[in-house]
Design brief:
Order of helices and strands: EEHHEHEHEHEH
CATH class of the largest domain: Alpha Beta
CATH superfamily of the largest domain: Ribosomal protein L4/L1
Shape: elongated
Length: about 220
């Protein structure tokens, strides 16, 4: 596949340059099977297996036999913590467990590559020269998104992911107040983050870091 060229915009939304995408990374491949595996693995690793119930052996009390074995006319019982008793243990209830599993690195990389190519085919990748704000205010950051024709008020359509080569503390504080905006380091992003956003905004340095990641 030939190198695809994308325009590069400044924070005012003006096209100031163009960049050729690496053909090894952006080759048009969209493998839905590995994307599915990566999404399942990511969601499983985020899952907290804290749900738990107590068996009859874990419920406190119940050490004394409720009544004698014979002669009462009632059914025999050995403990008040039997599952058929009120306040008794649970027979087949959930227990704490770890749902996470390790996905091979090749599959994770291919899933990320496929997700990026999917965004490219949808024309949902915007290359930004650099995200440097003179006024470190959320309003200034929102103005950049508006200049790039991204409507962050439309909650159903415009979920945005910004990929940078590095994130400083001030910039994170500025961007965190914008609804439906996620920020991540390009060298650490994953397929779930990319696919979970409608628009992908990546800086030139972030794009370089992303390309280097696949050349290791």
């Amino acid at each position: 596949m030939e190198n695809t060229t994308l325009p590069v915009f400044d924070i005012a939304g003006k096209e100031i340059d163009s960049v050729k995408l690496d053909a090894h990374l952006f080759d048009g491949t969209v493998n839905e099977d590995v994307i599915y595996q990566a999404i399942v693995a990511y969601r499983a690793n985020q899952r907290k297996g804290f749900a738990a119930t107590k068996t009859r052996g874990e419920v406190s009390g119940g050490g004394k036999k409720p009544w004698k074995q014979k002669g009462t006319g009632r059914a025999r019982h050995g403990s008040t913590r039997s599952p058929i008793w009120r306040h008794g243990g649970v027979v087949f209830g959930p227990h704490q467990r770890d749902y996470s599993f390790v996905l091979p690195a090749k599959i994770k990389n291919l899933a990320l590559k496929s997700s990026l190519n999917s965004k490219l085919k949808e024309n949902n990748i915007i290359v930004l020269d650099a995200l440097k704000l003179e006024n470190q205010k959320t309003k200034a950051a929102a103005a950049v998104l508006t200049a790039l024709k991204i409507d962050t008020k439309n909650k159903r359509k415009q979920k945005v992911l910004i990929l940078l080569d590095k994130i400083d503390k001030k910039l994170r504080l500025v961007l965190r107040n914008i609804d439906l905006l996620n920020i991540s380091v390009a060298s650490d992003t994953n397929a779930y983050e990319v696919l979970n956003s409608r628009k992908l905004v990546v800086t030139k340095d972030g794009l370089s870091a992303l390309t280097k990641r696949f050349k290791k």
